[in-house]
Design goal:
Shape: extended
Strand content: 5-15%
Helix content: 25-40%
Strand order of the largest sheet: 1-2
Number of helices: 6
Number of strands: 6
Structural class: alpha/beta
């Protein structure tokens, strides 16, 4: 949304609960509403006009697969390490990135299945924050018995696996 330019012919529909934001970034159609309520109202209005929602989930899955195929062989060995971590990390486990090549690759190359299961410092450049962040994140989810080291260490641990790798879960 903070483009210096917009592609020619692009129409922008913006839903924002804060009317002041509509003045800051004008849209072709501005809807001041809660995002959930506004999106549902927009879909209802479009369906009344005969518009249908296509297989958006299928199209997004195809686009993700095509993007992954295009970059996977170029970003090695980092994506291979992330593939292994994803294979052994339970679906409700979490990953904390670190400022490193592995951390950067995890931003776009690590599949995330649940909200708040990928913790990142973003673009803050906080080298060394992965370990304490992981420890704090684990403390915020008592009873899960799961944690993941930062991808820079390329290791993960789970108490539910039959033969977990050596790790400190204390």
């Amino acid at each position: 949304m903070r483009w210096n330019w917009r592609p020619p012919g692009l129409k922008l529909i913006r839903i924002d609960i804060d009317p002041a934001e509509m003045r800051r970034l004008p849209a072709d159609i501005g809807v001041v509403a809660d995002a959930d309520e506004g999106a549902r109202a927009l879909l209802d209005a479009l369906s009344k006009e005969g518009a249908t929602v296509s297989d958006r989930a299928g199209r997004l899955a195809e686009a993700k697969a095509a993007t992954n195929a295009a970059i996977h062989d170029r970003i090695q060995p980092q994506l291979a390490y992330l593939d292994v971590i994803r294979d052994v990390l339970p679906e409700d486990g979490f990953l904390v990135d670190e400022i490193s090549q592995m951390g950067f690759a995890s931003w776009y190359g690590f599949p995330v299945y649940r909200p708040r299961s990928f913790v990142t410092a973003g673009l803050q450049g906080t080298l060394g924050s992965g370990f304490p962040t992981r420890a704090r994140r684990q403390g915020g989810v008592p009873g899960t018995g799961r944690w993941s080291r930062s991808p820079a260490t390329a290791a993960s641990c789970s108490r539910r696996r039959s033969s977990p790798p050596p790790c400190n879960t204390a």
